[in-house]
Amino acid sequence: MQDLSGRVAVVTGGAGGVGRGIVEALLEEGARVVIGDVEEPVLHATVDELSDRGQVRGVVTDVSSFESVDALAESVYDTERACHLLFNNAGVTSGGGGKPWEQESNDWRWCYSVNVFGVAHGVLAFVPRMLESGEPGVVVNTSSQDGGIAPVPWASVYASSKASVACFTESLAHQLAATGADVRAAIFYPSGGLLETGLWTAQRNRPTQLARQKERAPAPGTTFEEFKKQLADAGLPTDTVDLTELGRFLLQGIKDGKFVISHGLEEAADLLHARADAIAKGELPSASRL
Question: Would you list the DSSP string of 70-131?
């Protein structure tokens, strides 16, 4: 997968944020891109804005619904006749953070329906078709270092959903390798600085049937500006990531054949070693990040 020109790529959650950065990087490489996104007006606007950069189209897709993702896969195979790169990228928060016992059942349902079931639905809908086609392929699942590398106690539901994606992707990678087919899996941790994306305002897409039942003020630091100020007050870096450049970084990782694609893996290794040492002693790992 060194040359992406003419390859067919599908990006869920691709109308904005990290997903759009991936789409833009793919178009630079000459890939044919299909964006699956739940926000129809934003999806159409993104396709219009990017249409002069290459071949791109959009399909309204709700990743929490297998039927919707399966319809996306059917559309891709009917029209583009292949899928070489599948980016299961759509994601949301849990609805305001806070203490685990202050979260509601609907917070879990919403977060997991997108972050975990969305990835599962992408695999269920696309991987059988990818294997049957005999074409080379890569399935890239977007996780987060906040959960995939080390759980974040202050974002318990979100972090646990991303830890689930990391564990699942490792299993997927091993089992795809065992088939002998030219289809593999990789995990992507968006990283390299602050990510100013629609994830911070994901509530705009929350289904009414999964709304919170009790009024509760958002936890501190649940907006991008609040979080950035917290970091600045603590003397920590507040540089924001260029999302298209992040997409280019991801594509290079795919070309390099990496399973884990992330900035700062050496620091992550130090953190994981510290966690392993605590676990080996039967202790609770530290909540602090390096």
Answer: HHHHHHHHHHTS--SEEEE------SS---GGGS-HHHHHHHHHHHTHHHHHHHHHHHHHHH
Which token pair is 218?
């958002």
In the block, tokens 């990743």 appear at 63
Sign, CA torsion 195/150/250/178: negative
Q: What is the pLDDT of residues 145-191, one digit of tens each?
A: 989 898 788 888 999 999 999 999 999 999 999 999 999 999 999 99
Residues across the chain: 290
CA distances for 147 relative to 153, 163, 189, 252, angstroms = 9, 4, 10, 24
Which residues partner with 240 through β-bridges? 194
Q: Cβ distance 65 to 125 under 8 Å?
A: no
* Residue 59 tokens, joined: 């399909």
Cβ neighbourhood burial of 81 (10 Å; 0-12, 13-18, 19+): exposed
